[in-house]
Structure formats: structure tokens, C-alpha cells
Amino acid sequence: MSLSLFDLKTQSALLKPLIKQKIEAVLEHGAYINGPEVAEFERQLAALSGAKAAVGVSSGTDALVIPLMALGVGPGDAVFIPAFTYNATANAVLLAGGTPVFVDVDEATFNIDPGQLEDQIDRIKLRSKLNPKGIIPVDLFGLPADYAAINAIAQKHGLFVLADAAQSFGGGQDGARVGALAPVTATSFFPSKTLGGYGDAGAILTQDESLVPVLQSIRWHGTDEARKESIRVGMNGRLDSLQAAVLLAKLTVFEDEHRRRAAVGAAYDAALKDVVTVQALPPGTRHARGLYSVLVSDRPKFQESLKAAGVPTGIYYGMPLHLHAAFRSFCNGPGSLPVCEGLAQHIVALPMHPYLTEAEIAQVTGAVRRAV
Question: What is the Cα–Cα distance from 166 to 347, expressed in whole angstroms?
Fold first, then answer.
């Protein structure tokens, strides 16, 4: 039985009548940009996440860039980010005019290491002309970063915290949901995410309601409320009504899907933790299970063995950001972030979605155990 890393077809078939109904409503009223579906989606998103407000945008990358612009990031400003993540995090800092400072990650959680973070902040203060401005933790694979420690470090050094929750919507920590763990949170609705649209889409979740008009202005070319005058530098970062309609339909099954993702993750952990290294789940943390990745010693051989068993694999991420050609000038080169570099050599993603059956879970775990 051949599996897939992500299953978008089963959900699509399940929700097709409701999605069709909501899309037809958009076609009927014709407000394809900033229609009523966008406002309703923002309302439901804020309520679900515990944020004071949500602002829908056109992609997860724009969900990072727009708040960076709103928070005044510009030339000479240092923004601290983990190097073991997708390139959108670094690109967002550069697009906003800032300078990314790469930080090593914790070998157990794969998330930004608070100790290394503070060391990098101190280093920039002492040895650089850059101005420490903010921190972007990334909730890798859906596991929230250590926000208690990160928020304390940020407060100590006078920095903002912008959570990159592209993979962790639905997760939580110490009783709070992703969206309420940091002052500002960016998330993505790329089709394969825990809540995915039928194209690119994203949202900014904030605990600071005074920031909302600025975010809304920047996403609409920096214009005033009448959209007649540019009062700040902005961009075209709006969320389409059609995407909002699709996402509203998908929200109706989101909690059920999250519970199933959690069950799949727990089954994987129980069956695999004695044969491969699994991502640690700290007490009090709710993993969104956007991806399920393990560490293996011989990745090519492991992947070939799973392929023969009908189990697909992926690599997220095979090269840490500080070694990418576009970002090399912002770090000290190979060897400077050893945990990130080690993870990149051994990480492998397994199938993870809410429609895996018990038989399919057994197929995956059995193939992994045989492979190692």
C-alpha cells in the first residue's frame, strides 16, 4: 500500500459541498478582495487562537514581512532567527530591510536555543554595529518554541518577539494557543499546513489591537482608511475572499483534524522513540504536528528502505540557512552552528496528516523499525 506525505484529497472530498457553497457565495456578491468572508475568517481565527485580533494576508511570508515593517525594522537592525528552518524567515527580515542573525537550535526540540540566543544578542551588542531589534522564533514542524524563556530574554534586552508559526497553528503551550504565546504571530495557510487553503494565504495574529490599523494599512499599499493616500510604505498583501471562503469551510473540521494529528504523532512516538531520535515534546506543550520528522544515522539507506515499503519520505531541511548562498555573508560559515548542521544531515520526514488509518500508521512504523 503506497502512502503520501500529505493527504489533501480526502479532506477535499469531505468538504467539497461546503466549499462549493462558500465559493458560490463569493461569486454571487463579487467582492473578491476584502469581502465579508475575510472579516469573518479573521474573527474566527482570533477566537480560535486566543489572539486579540487577526489580519488576513496573501501568504505566510507576507505575514512575517508586514509586522516587521509595522515594528519599524530597517537598515542596521538585527533580527535573531534560528538557522534550521525554511528560507522564508530569513527572506522576510531582509525584505523588511533588517539583517538576520542566525542562532543555533536545541538538539532535542529542534527549536531556537534560548541560551544560544542570548549569547548571540550579547555578541551583537559588544562586537557589532548592528542594533538588536527583535527575535523571530520558529515553531519547527508544529512544536511551539520555548516562549517563556524567549519572551523573558526579549524583555530583558528590549526586543520584540514575532512568532513564526507557519507550521504550528493549532498548537499551544501552558494552556495558551499559538497566537497568544507571543505579542505578534505569523502563520501560513499554504495547502499542506495544518490549516491550508487552495493556494497561498496567511495571517497575522496579535495581542496588540493598536497594531491592527497599521498592519491593515501596510497590506493595502500603505494607504489610509479611505485608500486614497499612501501614509506609509506598504505592499499588496491582501487575502482574497475566495481563499477566506475555503479556509472558513476547513475551520469546521480543524479541531477534529488536530486531535487526529495528535493521535498519529503519539502513535509514532510510542513505536519509534526507541529506534530513532524523535522531536522532544516538553511538558505542557501542544504539538500541532504539521510535520513529523526523525533523525537517522544513514539517511540515504533509510529512505531507500522506506521507499521499497511504499512509505514516502521528505527532508525538511537539508541545508541550514546560514549555509545558503543568499545568506552566507550574515554568518561565520560552516561549523558556526553545529547543531543546525548536524540536524540537516540526519533529518527525515514521515507521512503526517489527519487521515492516516491505523493500518497505514502500522505500515509506516513497521517500515521504520525494519529500516533501522
Answer: 19
Helix/strand/coil percent split, the chain, to 5: 45, 15, 40
Is the bond leading into 86 cis (omega within 30 degrees of zero)?
no
The rounded distance, in Å, linking the Cα atoms of 321 and 94 is 13
Which strand ranges, in their side-by-side order, compose the sheet holding 77-82? Answer: 53-57, 202-206, 184-188, 160-164, 131-135, 77-82, 99-103
For the chain, which residues make up each domain, given as ranges? 9-103+110-251, 254-371
**Interatomic CA distance for residues 247 and 169, integer angstroms:** 13
- Single-letter residue type at 146: D
Q: For residue range 272-321, what is the model confidence (pLDDT) as tens digits?
A: 999 999 999 999 999 999 999 999 999 999 999 999 999 999 999 999 99
- Is the confidence at residue 324, as pLDDT, over 70? yes
* C-alpha cell of residue 191: 495547502
Separation of alpha carbons 214 and 191, rounded Å: 28
How far is 205 from 329, CA to CA, in rounded Å? 32
> Exposed, middle or buried, 340 (CB in 10 Å: 0-12/13-18/19+)?
buried
How many CB atoms neighbour CB 278 within 10 A?
19
Looking at the domain covering 254-371, what would its CATH class be?
alpha beta
Q: Which residues make Cβ contacts (< 8 Å) with residue 151, sequence separation at least 6?
A: 161, 182
For 9-103+110-251, CATH number out of 1.10.8.60, 2.60.40.10, 1.10.10.10, 3.40.640.10 equals: 3.40.640.10
Helices 9-29, 241-251: axis angle to 10 degrees equals: 130
Residue whose C-alpha cell is 514581512: 65
pLDDT exceeding 70 applies to what percent of the chain?
A: 100
Nearest in space to 166 (alpha carbons), one of 91, 223, 94, 101: 91
CB atoms within 10 A of CB 343: 23
Please name every residue paired with 80 in a beta bridge, in sequence order, or none if there are none.
Answer: 101, 135
Give the H or E element holding residue 188: strand 184-188
Best CA proximity match to 187, nearest among 62, 339, 35, 44: 62
Residue indicated by cell numbers 526523525? 294
